[in-house]
Amino acid sequence: MSLAIIGLLIDFGLVVLIWMIQCIVYPSFSYYSAENLIVWHNKYTARFSFIVVPLIVLQLILSIYEVVSVANLYTILRLLLIVALWCATFFQFVPIHTKISNGKISSELLVSLVHKNWVRTVLWTLLFLLNLYYYLSFAV
Question: Which residue ranges run through the membrane (predicted)?
Answer without folding.
Answer: 6-32, 44-65, 71-96, 117-136
